[in-house]
Design goal:
By secondary structure, this protein is an all-beta fold. It contains no helices and eleven strands. The protein is globular, with a radius of gyration of 14 Å. The relative contact order is 0.31.
């Protein structure tokens, strides 16, 4: 069964750090990309980072660039999101999602378009207190 499971959320003070994990289960695809999205109450879902399993290419939204780092451990089928210098506006439910297309040498024009992603995790809450 294909499944994505997030963990690592919690409560942290402004300026603190958290590391989120996304366990990838049941994938038989050689090529896939994992992205992190987040959704705060009353706001639209926002794509914030993406990484390719094969090439390790990364994307970051401007709101997190320089503070968040995405990484992948192919041996363990894990994707991580290291979040540093957290701000209250980072408070949201964080989801990982998988795009199982083989993009080969192409890159998506909109890497964070939700329609690109076929599988989603259940989410983990991150709360940053001021």
């Amino acid at each position: 069964e294909v499944q994505l499971v997030e963990s690592g959320g919690g409560l942290v003070q402004t300026g603190g750090s958290l590391r989120l994990s996304c366990a990838v289960h049941g994938f038989t695809f050689d090529h896939y990309h994992i992205a992190w999205f987040r959704q705060a109450p009353g706001k639209e879902r926002e794509g914030i980072s993406r990484i390719g399993r094969s090439d390790g290419a990364t994307y970051y939204a401007g709101t997190v660039k320089g503070r968040f780092t995405i990484s992948i451990d192919n041996a363990e089928n894990m994707v991580y999101l290291q979040m540093d210098n957290l701000k209250p506006e980072d408070t949201a439910v964080y989801y990982c999602a998988a795009d199982t297309r083989d993009w080969k040498d192409f890159r998506p024009v909109q890497p964070f378009a939700p329609a690109l992603y076929q599988y989603w995790g259940q989410g983990t809450q991150v709360t940053v207190s001021s």
